[in-house]
Amino acid sequence: MNKILLSLAALTLGMSLVACSTNTREQNTVLGGATGAVVGGVGAGLLGGNAGAIAISAVAGAIIGGLIGHSMDSSDTNEMNHIMNNTPAHTTEHWVNNKTGASFTITPTSENMTIRGKSPCRKYRATTVTGDKHETTTGILCRQTDGNWASI
Closest Cα to residue 53, out of 42, 69, 66, 64? Predict the structure, then answer.
């Protein structure tokens, strides 16, 4: 079950990172919140939660996803793409978005690999800090035809 939760968290981050490339901050907040709500609700459902647990997880996911989405803009996506393209495995990169105050840390945890016929793909660990909220995710991202990295 932990693998399912980690995959869902990675999916949330990946979707938020890719979707935020051209959106406004407000659009990113809405998209992140909606994605987080779905992931939280589905995650609780997969763990056999009752209706109350699913609702609470969906709300918590919406809050966390909204915070991540709110903190991302195209400059963050560009930075993340640059890191995934150029940073050696197990090297941590960090940046702060001067407009939002959010800070991001990404560590590619593998070299390039092929997964499900997609290449290049890399494992990663990422942390987003917005105010006093810390969100850490792990997963796999693959470079898309448009050059952006997205969760598979």
Answer: 42
